[in-house]
Amino acid sequence: MAVADPLYHPRPPDSPLRKLLDDPYEAFRSHYPAVFESREGFLRPVVDEVV
After folding, report:
1. Which helix (H) or strand (E) holds 21?
2. Which long-range contacts (C-beta less than 8 Å, at least 24 apart) are formed by 25-32?
3. SS3 for 29?
4. Residue 43 CB: number of other CB atoms within 10 A?
5. Is the per-residue pLDDT at 15 higher than 80?
6. Model confidence, pTM
């Protein structure tokens, strides 16, 4: 009996989606306290976990 492919397929580390998220996210993360924290509050730890 063949096992069905799982629904989630991890993307390779060099995928365009990963590049799109990783580089801008690091800039966002480093600027968040100065730019957004006073208005939006602290950046929740779950954000780092899911990105």
Report:
1. helix 16-35
2. 25/51
3. helix
4. 14
5. no
6. 0.57
